[in-house]
Amino acid sequence: QVQLVESGGGLVQAGGSLRLSCAASGRTLSPYSMGWFRQAPGKEREFVAAINWRGGSINYADSVKGRFTVSRDNAKNMAFLQMNSLKPEDTAVYYCAADRGWSTLEYGWSYWGQGTQVTVSS
């Protein structure tokens, strides 16, 4: 089992930045791809970004390309999501996820954190 805990969410003005962290315990993250998803009120959970176990393959949703950067530190068993130029429409609960596979679909991920709220004011 992999336990994931997100942190770093908060309230920020439009145009600002936040850095989300995802700390893993239970197992080393090295073999796992790491993903970030978000869910806004009344909406489905959607894919944001993913990075494979080596960090050599990265994928972003079109809505965040050029503004968000996903990274990982396997030695620290952590993953990160740097979010710049935030917009009100980025407001959501952000979740990190882990899986040995690779997917942009929610059901493709085995382990999930509890989420952290990001609120972007206009």
Question: Can you describe this structure?
Answer:
By secondary structure, the chain is an all-beta fold. The model has no long low-confidence stretch (mean pLDDT 95). The protein has no helices and eleven strands. The strands form two sheets. Strands 2, 4, 5, 6, 9, 10 and 11 form a seven-stranded mixed β-sheet that branches. It is globular and about 40 Å long. The protein has strands spanning 3-7, 10-13, 18-25, 33-39, 46-51, 58-60, 68-73, 78-83, 92-99, 111-112, 116-121. A hairpin with a 6-residue loop joins strand 4 (33-39) and strand 5 (46-51).
Key terms for this structure?
single chain; about 120 residues; mainly beta; 7-stranded mixed β-sheet; 4-stranded antiparallel β-sheet; about 0% helix; about 50% strand
Spans of 5+ residues with little confidence (pLDDT < 50)? none
Task: Give me the Rg, rounded.
Answer: 13 Å
- Give average pLDDT, whole number: 95
Rounded to the nearest angstrom, the distance between the terminal CA atoms is 40 Å
Structural class assignment: mainly beta
Shape: globular
Number of β-strand runs: 11
Strand percentage lies at over 45%
Helix content: under 10%
| N-to-C series of helices and strands | EEEEEEEEEEE
Topology:
Layout: E1 3-7, E2 10-13, E3 18-25, E4 33-39, E5 46-51, E6 58-60, E7 68-73, E8 78-83, E9 92-99, E10 111-112, E11 116-121
Parallel strand pairs: 2-11
Antiparallel strand pairs: 1-3, 3-8, 4-5, 4-9, 5-6, 7-8, 9-10, 9-11
